[in-house]
Each structure stands twice: as structure tokens, then as C-alpha cells.
Amino acid sequence: MSLFDITALFIIMVTLAAIPSTSLALVVTRSATMNLANGVAVSMGIVLGDMLFVMLAILGLTSLSEIMGGFFLVAKFTAGIYLIWFGISLIRSRTKNMVCKYSGPGGGIIASFLAGLFVTLGDVKAIVFYASLFPAFIDISTLTLSDIVIILFVTVVTVGGVKLAYAFAATKAMAIGKELGAGNKVQLISAALMVGTGSYLIARI
Description:
The protein has nine helices and no strands. By secondary structure, the protein is mostly helical. α2 (22-33) packs antiparallel against α6 and α3 (36-58) packs parallel to α6. It is globular. 40% of the residues are buried.
């Protein structure tokens, strides 16, 4: 891969990672309603999902969405149910005034990681990019081992970096909101966002 190819891939993946999406909403919500550690865990789950897509694309599975369509439907449904469940649990707990220490049915670090992974595996945008557009930007047939390592590194830096930035920003925003007495309102908005996003995912199946 040339420096131009690497730079182009970097810019494209940063842009895609920063576009509002289900995974981004999950990062922000888990960070704001729980803590930064959970936001980081979600981000790592998302990164793993993207890395799996990269490897599948490199292996030549360009018809990924058709070959593994059933699996991705299950992942999307699972993610949708979880988001709705998490949103409802936030609504039920918002009167406890324990926003940043929330430890209810939403789970902990492992739950956050798995949520990020399954949301990514069910993300149509990611599937379309890695199954169709990714091979158009990268000549899969000429890749060397060093090229694959570079691509995976770019994936970790771009996707992980953007999601972590959002997680940090959401945590800071929530801290400011608590100081201003808006913690419960932010939690309610986050809950509504999760329920709405989860419902949207299921409705699109």
C-alpha cells in the first residue's frame, strides 16, 4: 500500500466513524449514564467488530451481507432488544439520582463491550462499507502481510480514536450537567434515545 492509499483509507474511516450512528449513540449513552470506562468498553467492542469486517473483506468475502445475512440479522435483533432494555432500565432508575454510578440491568464493562460488538455486527452501514466499498478502495489481491497489519492498525486508530473522543466528551458533558442539576434530564433523553434506536434497528429487520 502506498502512503496515498493509507492516507485515503484513514480519512474515509475517520469520517465514517464520526458520522452519527447506532454505535456512536451507544458510546455516548453508556459514557454519560454510567462512566468513561463503560464508554471505552463499548468503543473496544465496536473496534473488534470493525476488525472482523476488515478481515472478512480481506479474505475475499465481498458478498458478506448475503453469505452471512442470517447471522447479521440475529446480531441486529439482539442489539435492538438490548438497547430497548437498557433505555427502559435508565428510565426506571432516573429518580435514584445515581447517574454516573448507575449499575442496574444495563450491566457493566463486559456488557458494554458486547453491546458495542453486536451493534457493530448489526450495522448496515458497516456491512455495506466493508463488503462492497472497502474492496474498491483496497486492492485485496495484492495485499501483503504488512499491508494487512497497516489496515488493522488504521482501523484501531481511526474507529477507536473517534469513539473514545466521543466517550470522553460525553462523560465531561454529563459531569457539567450534574453540576447544573440537569443529570436526570440528560439520563431521560439518553434513555429515550436508546429505546428509539433499538426500536429502529428491529423495525429495519
